[in-house]
């Protein structure tokens, strides 16, 4: 369980600065886009770069929100059942989340394989680099749900919201 806790902490420690840096880069690209359109000739790649950054930040932000347990959740049923049923509901919920994320990882990888050779018009990047985020983020969320499931089954510890670092 210590190894899983260390991996869990490492995922959060990597995701937070990556999402932050992505937001900084996105702000820079959009600022360049606006300034260049108003004062100069528009820089052609900025719109495409901003779109790809938003896609990556959406999926990485979703993984970070899942890691911190800040996704929206309907907990009224889990909160009202007796403790022995609560654990069963939590196990079932985590199993469903894990199965869904594993299927998204597999389907995302298949999509990446079939559509990844296309090229972005302005940047010339292979779309594989854009599509890679789907299996990557889904795999991260599947792994995080497995960690929560292991904690619940081994220690009986229910998933709780992680505090943000100060």
Q: What's the average pLDDT? A: 90
Regions with little confidence, pLDDT below 50 for 5+ residues = none
By DSSP (H or I, 4+ residues per run), the number of helices equals: 6
What best-fitting shape do the alpha-carbon axes yield?
A: elongated
Q: Could you tell me how far the N terminus lies from the C terminus, measured between alpha carbons in angstroms? A: 25 Å
Order of helices and strands: HHHHHH
Helix content: over 70%
**What percent of residues are in strands?**
under 5%
Q: Largest sheet, described in full?
A: none
Radius of gyration: 19 Å
Our count of domains comes out at 1
Structural class: mainly alpha
User: Got a strand count?
Assistant: 0
Characterise this structure.
With 166 residues, the protein is mostly helical. The chain has one domain (2-155). The protein has six helices and no strands. It has helices at 2-39, 46-67, 76-80, 83-115, 128-131, 133-155. Helix 1 runs antiparallel to helix 2 (46-67) and helix 4 (83-115) runs antiparallel to helix 6. The longest helix has 38 residues, at 2-39. The radius of gyration is 19 Å and the shape is elongated. The mean pLDDT is 90.
């Amino acid at each position: 369980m210590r190894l899983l806790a260390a991996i869990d902490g490492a995922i959060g420690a990597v995701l937070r600065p990556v999402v932050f840096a992505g937001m900084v880069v996105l702000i820079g690209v959009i600022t360049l886009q606006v300034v260049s359109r108003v004062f100069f000739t528009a820089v052609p790649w900025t719109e495409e770069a901003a779109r790809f950054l938003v896609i990556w930040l959406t999926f990485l932000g979703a993984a970070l929100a899942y890691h911190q347990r800040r996704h929206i959740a309907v907990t009224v049923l889990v909160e009202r059942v007796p403790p022995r049923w609560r654990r069963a509901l939590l196990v079932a919920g985590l199993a469903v989340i894990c199965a869904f994320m594993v299927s998204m990882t597999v389907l995302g990888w298949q999509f990446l394989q079939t559509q990844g050779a296309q090229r972005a018009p302005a940047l010339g990047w292979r779309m594989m680099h854009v599509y890679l985020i789907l299996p990557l983020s889904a795999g991260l969320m599947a792994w995080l749900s497995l960690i929560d499931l292991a904690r619940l089954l081994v220690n009986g510890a229910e998933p709780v919201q992680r505090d943000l670092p100060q």
